[in-house]
Automatic annotation (TrEMBL):
Its cofactor is Mg(2+). Residues 299-324 are annotated as: Disordered. It comes from the Eukaryota. It comes from Aegilops tauschii subsp. strangulata (Goatgrass). The keyword Mitochondrion does not apply. GO terms for biological process: fructose 6-phosphate metabolic process. One of its GO terms (molecular function) is metal ion binding. Residues 12-231 form the Phosphofructokinase domain. This is Phosphofructokinase domain-containing protein.
Length: 324
């Protein structure tokens, strides 16, 4: 028999798994930095879970597919209500504080939506090319219409008509005013001033969407994220796990917390939506140029100074390395 004289030293490594959205990942990053400062043998694995799909770098976050699927059911109900009345309007408010992905994808999946409003794309109500003009034209053509609005859309317009002091929630996010109720009243007032009969039904399925079980696609995705997180943490890495260009990756915390994933209104997907709904873009040349500049700056984000030395030691590619 061969005797092994080598003695293996077992190093106990504590692993912490943190599940949540962009705020949670920022918290995970702060925990990771404090662990490094203290020199502890602790691996921190962040697992993105938010239906808003606003986590940067990754293809999509867990829960997004389920949210879009349930949102489509709410849109279907709004379409039935709208088409059952003379000049009927179905208005659906969906989640999306800063990013309108749920509204955009649910609109594309439904095919019954006539107008989709998201935070990334500014719009205006009155005047030529405005929302009211489009509503009047659509009702004359189809006798009904469906509007989908993300909760973060039109906040600048609401602030002008309802002056209130900025308030923050427990997480430090700005409290949003209810764009759905505000838009409902604005549309009613406009139609009344035009002496135009119409019926509007407002549907807010927010907590129905949040509370339902995940669908098969998200169940599989969640399992794969868990497997990747466990393997990476057991190897001693600290990271946020996610799918990047179809491959599971360990992403440095600073990459997913330094910016937010948003709908690019200069991108082809938004153009597909405009083609599907036939709505006007509501954008001026200045708005388009501003969006392109914001996209350009987002793609040239500097690496934080605290991470520069660490980044030199490890590959800059988010597809191969996390933080160790």
């Amino acid at each position: 028999p061969i005797r092994l004289s080598t003695t293996f030293k077992i190093v106990e490594l504590i692993r912490v798994y943190i599940i949540g959205g962009d705020g949670t990942q920022k918290g995970a990053y702060e925990i990771f930095k404090e662990i490094r400062r203290r020199g502890l043998k602790v691996a921190v694995a962040g697992i993105p879970k938010t239906i808003d799909n606003d986590i940067a770098v990754i293809d999509k976050s867990f829960g997004f597919d389920t949210a879009v699927e349930e949102a489509q059911r709410a849109i279907d109900a709004a379409h039935v209500e709208a088409s059952s009345a003379e000049n009927g309007i179905g208005l659906v408010k969906l989640m999306g504080r800063y990013s309108g992905f749920i509204a955009m994808y649910a609109t594309l999946a439904s095919r019954d939506v006539d107008c989709c409003l998201i935070p990334e794309s500014p719009f205006y109500l009155e005047g030529e090319g405005g929302l009211f003009e489009y509503i009047e034209r659509r009702l004359k053509e189809n006798n009904h219409m469906v509007i989908v609005v993300a909760e973060g859309a039109g906040q600048d317009l609401i602030a002008k008509s309802i002056p209130v002091a900025d308030q923050l929630d427990a997480s430090g996010n700005k409290l949003l005013l209810d764009v759905g109720l505000w838009l409902t009243h604005k549309i009613k007032d406009h139609c009344k001033s035009k002496k135009m009969e119409m019926t509007i039904k407002y549907i807010d399925p927010t907590y129905m969407i949040r509370a339902i079980p995940s669908n098969a696609s998200d169940n599989v995705y969640c399992t794969l994220l868990a497997h990747s997180a466990i393997h990476g943490a057991m190897a001693g890495y600290s990271f946020t796990v996610g799918m990047v260009n179809g491959r599971h990756a360990y992403i440095p915390f600073h990459r997913v917390t330094s910016t937010r994933n948003k709908v690019k209104i200069t991108d082809r997907m938004w153009a597909r939506l405009l083609s599907s709904t036939n709505q006007p873009s509501f954008l001026s040349k200045e708005d388009i140029m501003e969006a392109r500049e914001a996209e350009r700056l987002a793609n040239r984000l500097p690496v934080p100074a605290s991470s520069s030395e660490h980044t030199k030691k490890h590959s800059a590619s988010v597809l191969s390395n996390g933080e160790k």
